[in-house]
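Re: duplicated header lines in exported structure tokens

Our pipeline writes sequence and tokens for each protein into one text file. With two proteins the header for the second block appears twice in some exports. Here is an export where it did not happen, for reference. First protein block:
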Amino acid sequence: MVRLVSLIIFSLATILLATKSSLCHGKTTLNLVDHGITFSIFPLRLKSGLGGHYIPEISCSSWRLAVEAHNIIDWKTIPQECEGYVGNYVLGKQYREDSKAVTEEAYKYAQSLNLVGDGKDIWVFDIDETSLSNLPYYAQHGFGVEPFNETSFSEWADHGIAPPLPESRTLYKNLLNLGIKVVFLTGRSESLRDSTLKNLKDAGYNTFEALILRNSTEYNGKTGVTYKSSERKKLEEKGYRIVGNIGDQWSDILGTNTGNRTFKLPDPMYYIS
């Protein structure tokens, strides 16, 4: 219970909601005095420090670029020395700005579409690190330094308290206003349906055409690419047209039946094949 309360506090106060922040000596400090918590976010400098001292994060920025460009694949954990860099990135302004750049481009594209208007135009949304943020969980697990533990993550997800990614929620609302329906397609297990459904609605995702979770029996041992390709094919066989597809993993947007256009959100914390 103590750990759960800590995660809720971290989520609500530190990650995506309003915080008290101060800029001091080149760093931003998220100040949660009431809870005795602080987390310093340093600028992601791309030059050597004062007096020419080496800053380890330089190589980590190149590593993140290679990850997002899908040049580094099939990795299990982030480099140990990049824990601070990745933590600063995902908790800082740049992560939100990068997400905003993606979702704004997605909305511009959606506005350019000539929709049929028969209710069959859909946009596929991934959930984790796309629609909902699990930063409260990953902050407790080294921002990806620790190997993924499905049991502990499922326990976190089952609480149903993950906050929304604001940029993705804005895109979601804009798409609905354009007449495009939303389908959530997630790698989460079918056993998490009730908690995921509640979490989505609590986070502001109240209207959607379908919520598709992974059936462990049907897709046991299959990759994320295979699973999501198969489920998108089923949607198209039902007559839906996938006009857009957004996710934080390459496995969300690779494979078959990917839709008319895909959009990749940033995520340097983990990789799903």
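Second protein block, exported in the same file:
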Amino acid sequence: MPEIPVNTELLTPILIVVLVVVVAVRLFRILREYERGVIFFLGRFQKVKGPGLIIVIPLIQQMVRVDLRTVVMDVPSQDVISRDNVSVRVNAVIYFRVIDAQKAIINVENYLQATSQLAQTTLRSVLGQHELDEMLANREMLNTDIQEILDSRTDGWGIKVSNVEIKHVDLNESMVRAIARQAEAERSRRAKVIHASGEMEASEKLVEAANRLAEEPNAIMLRYLQTLTEIAAEKSSTILFPMPTSMMEGLFKTVERHEQHKDKHDQ
């Protein structure tokens, strides 16, 4: 089989061009505005570069990209036992971002996984120190406590935790019924207190009204007549209307004088 002649003079420039292209591709890197490149020189940290066009010398320098945008991480549901021994399942969401690319790469192996695991343990630890009523009523306070703890513990990783939000507090069916009974009892207690308060205010007004009526004897007569008018409007068959003896004194005196006059006339 005849050999195919190879033009070494043409092959050499082609190899040189390919080599230059490969080196150029490995040499020049482009980092976006929200990216930074952590540069290692022969395995040792050198500097943080970016954004824009940067130069990375192949085989001598290595680059690790770091995203500086805010990360929204969903914390899986955690089984929490509250301080009053109630078992609940709680999940949350945390918002954080890398503010120091050097620490995020050098001080921790995987800052995303580390932050996720720390958020889960912190969520269980903080909520376990509070009662169920506090979990349901004071979420803003709990969110702030968890955020401050996470922020302080991730500071060495170059991470800033900006916000934590507890999304759901799931209760079992028996606990839901117990809370419903408690709420019903609380509403009943408030109704009794309101009723008692109303009775107290009414008694005070009645005492005040009695004192005012006692100042003018004719006022009680007007009140009786008004009550009689109200009762008569109901068209009841029988009306029992009490009359004070003071109102009958004049009538009794008139009858007595009439009887005396009659006896004198008979004599």
